[in-house]
């Protein structure tokens, strides 16, 4: 029987450094067949809605994610089956018509802002990590990233952050810190924590062999 993959879930507020940590782990675990799955690609399709309506969606509420499909895909990867994930377009606030084919791996790294919100998702994780970065640093990073990479204006980022991102963070993200096995301060720059996570993943993969 194929060995069970080791699943690491990485959550934390928007701009905390989840993706940076996840990608650093993928690089360090290159010899252990790692794959990355981002919860963001499971934001619900809104292609049937006009842009004006899409811009009003609360993307920091758990209802904005297609969690049933996300759970089903995670379960398939754990059973060593390949999946086809949606591709998300932040500038258009919806999915593109493409999909990404993902082959199963021995280490599965999953990152997402609302990752520990659903008990079904939490229960699939072997190691749960919360990246903990100050709100003001997260906001500055988000402002820079969203204006450079996600097609947003400065005014739009500030408005969205105040209206939904911050209140939903306090309601749905920060409280899930209590589910974490490990809390990583400052994210991407914390090489000690990233190396510890890498060593734990390698040890668990070897144990399963
Ligand atoms: N330690 C760091 N120092 C400076 N910039 C960082 C650091 N970690 C992440 N960033 C930058 O901040 C932005 C958000 O980081 P990212 O890893 O995408 O966060 P998240 O996935 O939690 O939203 C990115 O542009 C990234 O390059
Ligand atoms: N159409 C969308 C979809 C999501 N967002 C924001 O993305 C954030 C999560 O991604 P991070 O990489 O920052 O963790 C989340 O806070 C949503 O507000 C968006 O702006 N537009």
TrEMBL record:
It comes from the Bacteria. It is found in: Cytoplasm. Signal peptide: none annotated. Coiled coil: none annotated. It holds the Pfam family PRK. Its EC number is 2.7.1.48. Keywords: ATP-binding, Cytoplasm, Kinase, Nucleotide-binding, Transferase. This is Uridine kinase. It comes from Fructobacillus parabroussonetiae.
């Amino acid at each position: 029987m194929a060995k069970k993959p080791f699943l690491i879930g990485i959550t934390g507020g928007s701009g905390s450094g989840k993706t940076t940590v996840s990608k650093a782990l993928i690089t360090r675990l290159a010899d252990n067949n790692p794959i990355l799955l981002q919860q963001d690609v499971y934001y619900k399709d809104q292609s049937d809605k006009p842009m004006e309506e899409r811009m009003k969606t609360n993307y920091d509420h758990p209802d904005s994610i297609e969690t049933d499909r996300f759970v089903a895909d995670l379960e398939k990867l754990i059973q060593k089956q390949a999946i086809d994930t949606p591709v998300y377009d932040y500038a258009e606030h919806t999915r593109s018509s493409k999909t990404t084919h993902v082959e199963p791996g021995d280490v599965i790294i999953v990152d997402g802002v609302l990752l520990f919100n659903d008990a079904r998702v939490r229960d699939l994780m072997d190691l749960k990590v919360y990246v903990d970065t100050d709100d003001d640093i997260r906001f500055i990073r988000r402002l820079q990233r969203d204006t450079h990479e996600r097609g947003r204006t400065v005014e739009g980022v500030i408005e969205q952050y105040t209206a939904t991102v911050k209140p939903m963070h306090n309601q749905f993200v920060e409280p899930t810190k209590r589910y974490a096995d490990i809390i990583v301060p400052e994210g991407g720059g914390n090489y000690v924590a990233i190396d510890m996570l890498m060593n734990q993943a390698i040890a668990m993969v070897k144990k399963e062999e």
